Amino acid sequence: MRVISGTAKGRPLTSPGAATRPITDRVKENLFNILGARVAGANVLDLFAGAGSVGIEALSRGARAATFVELDRDALRALRDNLERTRLADRARVVRLDVFQFIRQGPAELYDLIYIAPPQYRGLWAETLAALDGRGFLAAGGIIVAQIHPKEYHALAVQNFELFDQRKYGSTLLCFYRNSSLPRA
């Protein structure tokens, strides 16, 4: 696991071991190719952050700030180590809290990119999207990306988000959502 591009390019990242399911470099590279210029200047929310690989990649590629929400002690240790070794800690906020408690507190700010990568096969990705629905976390032109196993996917009955893209990479499916109330160009 490493930072692929940007100011921290090539720096290795610590993994917390069995505590998380880190994104592969291949999937992460494809994700950021899809996101492209949207990342520069973005405010990022990394839910179920694990070692922080996605949020750190966004910071390395020019995101303005990133908030990492994680509860697991080993994952938090790896996350903080990774922020220090990449020298990106000054634009990061680490929140040790259950994701659903964090969402219930309501947004302190709007996010341009929300990344959801929960433990697999527990339905937490759908539960997280439902919890975010109508809570005001996503900025007007923002995107939510859920990282799941393809077998987990099912259509969701959410009011404020619409699925607009999916990309499958082996045993990883990336589902892209946006605000459904915004006019399309």
Structure description:
Helices cover 25% and strands 27% of the residues. With 185 residues, the chain is of the alpha/beta class. A seven-stranded mixed sheet has the order 3-2-1-4-5-7-6, sandwiched between helices. Strand 2, helix 3 and strand 3 form a beta-alpha-beta unit. It is globular, with a radius of gyration of 15 Å. 41% of the residues are buried.
Summarize the structure.
The protein is of the alpha/beta class and 185 residues long. 25% of the residues lie in helices and 27% in strands.
Q: Give the amount of beta strand, in percent.
A: 25-35%
The chain-level mean pLDDT equals 92
Strand order of the largest sheet: 3-2-1-4-5-7-6
Distance between the termini: 37 Å
Q: What is the CATH topology assignment?
A: Rossmann fold
Radius of gyration: 15 Å
CATH architecture: 3-Layer(aba) Sandwich
| Count of structural domains | 1
Low-confidence segments, ≥5 residues, pLDDT <50?
none
Total beta-strand segments: 7
SS element count, helices: 5
CA-based shape: globular
As a percent range, the share of helical residues equals: 25-40%
**What would you call the structural class?**
alpha/beta
The H-level CATH homologous superfamily, spelled out, is: Vaccinia Virus protein VP39
